[in-house]
Amino acid sequence: MPLWLRIPLLLALLIGGYFGLFALLGVALERYFLLMGFGPERAASAGAAMALGAEITLKLTLISSLAGLVIGVFAGMFRLSRRLWVQLPASFYIWVTRGTPLLVQILFAYNALPLLLQPLWPAAQQVLTPYWAAFIALSFNVGAYNAEVVRAGIQAIPKGQWEAAWSLGLTPADTMRFVILPQALRIVVPPLVNNVVALLKDSSLASVIALTELALSGQRIISATFRPVEVYLAVAAIYLLLTTILTFFTNLLEKRLQVATR
Amino acid sequence: MGLAQVRTLDQIKRSGEIRIGTEGEFPPFNYFDQKNQLTGFEIDLGNALAKRLGLKPVWITQAFDSLLIQLNQGRFDFVIASHGITEERAKAVDFTNPHYCTGGVIVSKRGGPKTAKDLQGKVVGVQIGTTYMEAAQKIPGIKQVRTYQKDPDALQDLLAGRLDAWITDRFVAKEAIKERKLENTLQVGELVFQERVAMAVAKGNKSLLQALNQALADLMKDGTYAQISKQWFGEDVRCK
């Protein structure tokens, strides 16, 4: 198949699969809740609410991990810089983010950040909805962990590569861009994937700021039905399903990026 | 922090919308119903109050333990989420006149403790951050008070036999027993304490406080309140 046909086809398949997954999930959940003795109307609404929560969880994880990847690559490179004014802020950011719990960071992004930003940006409180506050906290959190992964990847490239590139007349920046990073990024794919899977599960902490993702949509159903066992079982199963799907795709990616000589 | 953007009644009226904070996990007062819509006694009452003030209600749900903090930060104009009036809370926010009265009851398995006296040497479960927690801690002779994030978690441990009793709001207990059809398993014991429940506005927001009190009094007088209350509880729950 030619490339111009393959790419749109693949995209359509992905988008169709995405919506199909959550529609199917809603139906499956409804069946499950019916089986567990929920009333028909409650089962339908609980299924729909949890499917929506699952979609929010996945979407939040995907955009946060993309932003976290960009943050991580830059913070990881900056951390290795010899210029102190580049290196110190990156080290400081990684130190603070890895040294504080994500739960605190999420609460901070939602409850404290708008107040701190208010003098500069009066609309902060309206703009930083639970969704965007969670996005900021999650992407900066995973960014710090990614930064350390990227740093380790860069340091894993043998010194001879640098020397060879320099002897060919490449500038340090060009060496980084064209020689070191492409190799390092391949090495770091598995640990980066690990961070994304961890992020998907950690996103459940956003329930504390009343973001109706999967965990909170489950809790809401529990408060109305007083049935924690049935609902938490379903919540856990959906997390497992989402992480499984995520690792399926990232495994494909890993295979494609594998270096032939290794 | 002194940066709070608390809106006065004039500012609210100019915007045409009143932002109301609630928890959304406390049936039958405020919760998400079978159609996943925010509903309950307090939601109906809040909507009626907004209508009385000529404003459009905008509902915002937040975790119970952060509602009063965010109220003072101006995230919403007032909170209606079954807050029992306590001295400590009254230091942080201003309470309206109570919009209903209730009490904490002892719930246990049939044959279990029914009165505060029966609780001697027993393990009791409560929801964290609530007035029931404070009340349970004051009952003398209790072996242990366990705190739970949510009432359903406490109920689950009671059913599992890990708790001797669960102390909660009497209407919540009724709703839980009805919803899970536990009439033959559980019993509702005596009222451990009485409680006046009110809405809250940010500290010092006098214009809004007066307007809410006036609107509440009007609804109680013209029969709207009684009608909403009967619909949810089959009785008038205003403080006598």
Q: What value does the average pLDDT of chain B take?
A: 92
CA-based shape of chain B: globular
* Neighbour order of strands in the largest sheet of chain B: 5-1-6-11-7-10-8-9
Binned strand content of chain A: under 5%
Strand percentage of chain B lies at 25-35%
How many strands, which pairing sense, and closed or not: the largest β-sheet of chain B? 8 strands, mixed
Query: How many runs of DSSP E, i.e. beta strands of chain A?
Result: 0
Secondary-structure element order of chain A, N to C: HHHHHHHHHH
Number of strands of chain B: 11
**DSSP helix count of chain A?**
10
Describe the structure in your own words.
The complex is a heterodimer of chains A (262) and B (240). Helices cover 83% and strands 0% of the residues of chain A. Chain A contains ten helices and no strands. In chain A, α2 (40-79) crosses α6 (130-156), α2 packs antiparallel against α8 (172-202) and α9 packs antiparallel against α10 (228-257). The radius of gyration of chain A is 22 Å and the shape is globular. The two termini of chain A are 30 Å apart. Chain B has 240 residues and is of the alpha/beta class. Chain B has helices spanning 9-15, 41-52, 67-72, 87-92, 131-138, 151-159, 170-180, 206-222, 224-233; strands at 17-22, 25-26, 30-32, 38-39, 56-61, 78-84, 93-109, 123-127, 144-148, 165-169, 186-202. In chain B, α2 runs antiparallel to α9. Chain B starts with 8 loop residues before the first helix and ends in a 7-residue tail after the last helix. The A-B interface holds A 39, 41-42, 45, 48-49, 111, 114-115, 118-119, 125, 208-210, 219-229 and B 1, 3-5, 24-27, 31-36, 61-63, 66, 69-70, 73-75, 150-153, 155-156, 176, 179-180.
